[in-house]
Specification:
With 134 residues, the chain is mainly alpha-helical. The chain folds into two domains: 52 residues, no CATH class; 44 residues, no CATH class. It contains four helices and no strands. The C terminus is likely disordered.
């Protein structure tokens, strides 16, 4: 877990010339986990929460843009409505495992964003997970 020192946009400690403070280290996931491959839409959010905190209007199938604390409230409410679901936000280790897919690259498809991977990266950035969400 963590990123190589030469990876662009790795954890930054605020100093202009710093390389960040994270350390590349092995992590063992001891339990299976499920990570949905779709964003929570405004329609889905409204069905669970009764409101729509949308920033971008015009299409209720657009993803919801919320902070982690609000996402956790959504998850708690979803689990209340559907007992046994056991939905949760991924840990940093789970997210990094899913994103890197066993590689040392920033993404499972490599180090660079191409036109074919742009939509995936856009969704990841909307979720905020690429920059430490988890």
């Amino acid at each position: 877990m963590g990123s190589p020192e030469d990876e662009p946009e790795r954890e930054w400690d605020g100093l202009e010339e710093a390389k960040g403070t994270e350390t590349l280290h092995p992590v063992t996931l001891t339990q299976n986990f499920w990570l949905p491959d779709t964003a929570v839409t405004q329609t889905f959010w409204q069905g669970v929460m009764g409101n729509n905190p949308r920033v971008f209007t015009g299409n209720p199938e657009n993803p919801v843009e919320v902070e982690r604390d609000h996402a956790q409230v959504f998850i708690d409410r979803l689990n209340y409505l559907f007992p046994g679901l056991q939905a949760n936000l991924p840990s940093k280790a789970q997210w990094e495992y899913a994103c890197r897919a066993g590689t040392a690259m920033p993404f499972s498809f490599g180090a660079n964003i191409t036109p074919g991977t742009g939509q995936l990266c856009w969704l990841l950035s909307l979720r905020g997970w690429r920059k430490g969400f988890g």
